[in-house]
Amino acid sequence: MGVTIKDVAQAANVSVASVSRVLNGHSTVTDDTRARILAVMKALRYVPHVGARSLSTNLTDTVGVLLPDLYGEYFSEMIRGIDGAARRRGLHLLVASLHGGADEAATALRTMRGRVDGLLVMSPHADAAFLADNLPGQLPVVLLNSGAGGGAYASVSIDNFSAAYAMVGHLAASGHRSIGFITGPAGNFEAQERLRGYRAALAAFLPRAREAVYEGDFTEEAGTRVGTALARRKRRPGAVFAANDMMAIGAQLALQAAGVDVPGDIALAGFDDIPVARYVTPALTTVRVPIAEMGALALGRLAAQIAAGAHGGHGAAADTLDAHLVVRASSGQRAPVPSNRIPITGDRQ
Q: Which stretches make up the HTH lacI-type domain (predicted)?
């Protein structure tokens, strides 16, 4: 039989209640007593019984994470940030991906019931009504990059519109007079905001230019399809801005494979600044999104709600993180327009 909480209490010369308070993080235990109990637990190699602790505290020390996908560097970075913040707090993750439609998302949410203390959700289906229909009202929830935040549920996101607007401004300032855009998936809030930023910037900076919008879905394969199609055309836009880096890289590789020079024949830019963006040749101009930091902040906000016994539905706050341009070789530079016409900020790398 393993070491029990009673063994720890006896060895530390304290009550079982004192050991329990230390395990549950209560502040009513003195620092000296807490240190002594922790030292005894370490010496005895005591492992708390998670099931028993869950019964006594009504907590599982587990948070759910629902993402549209788990494949690719963007989601790897997001999970890295969430996991690091969770481990620092002694929390575990239950992760699921949502490849299907609203029915699959609803099933995933309902599956999490009773298994987690709170949820981080990134889903195009996660508006307030959808969450209310599929989750207990008292469950803490934080949304990631969702248009549903700032009202019923807490959210962490970036200003996708302004970042896309700035990118088109940079391309126009670099002398490109025709700028295409590869979209993200239909119904995705981030993709919609980036497309909106592209259109607004095109109207502001190049009012005589025509839109050139190509359908994408945030995958490298979508970028490859667009790049392959552009390589066959005699008339191409001078620059193409993809709604994420994976599509930009797919387009870049397809264009180069067909003998089209980047950025000499066509300039490219992406969005996210995933780690591989700096290693392709030429390195990719992009919008730097603090992906891991966003995940860590969302986990912190969720942990605070759990600790306070808070939940969605009470005008929760929306955190908006800064994103900024990272100018690299792929966007090229032709005869620039006067810089006072286009406000551009960002890093050159």
A: 3-57
Whether residues 101 and 171 fall in one domain: no
User: Across residues 279-292, what is the average pLDDT?
Assistant: 94
Residue 346 has pLDDT above 50, yes or no: no
From residue 232, give the alpha-carbon distance in Å to each of 78, 172, 217, 235, 256: 36, 24, 21, 9, 12
Within 8 A by CB and 6+ apart from 348, the residues are 326, 327, 328
Q: What is the mean pLDDT of residues 113-139?
A: 77
For the CA atoms of 303, 309, 315, 316, the dihedral, rounded to the nearest 10 degrees, stands at 0
Instruction: Count CB-CB contacts under 10 A for residue 349.
Output: 14
Statement to judge: residues 36 and 128 lie in one domain: no
Provide the token pair at 112. 């999490």
45: left (phi > 0), else alpha (psi -120 to 50), else beta?
Answer: left
Q: Same domain for 330 and 317?
A: no
* Total tally of structural domains belonging to the chain: 3
Residues 64-113 have pLDDT tens digits of 998 877 777 888 999 999 999 999 988 899 988 776 667 777 777 777 77
End-of-domain residue from the set 57, 84, 101: 57
Range of the domain at 199: 160-290+325-348
151 and 166 assigned to the same domain: no
Kindly give the pairing relationship between strand 286-288 and strand 324-327: antiparallel
Helices 5-12 & 31-44, crossing angle to 10 degrees? 120
Over residues 28-57, the pLDDT tens digits come to: 788 889 889 889 988 888 766 544 444 445
- Let me know the angle formed at the C-alpha of 197 by 195 and 202, rounded to the nearest 5 degrees: 95
Q: Residue 336 carries which DSSP code?
A: P
Amino acid (one-letter) located at 277 = A
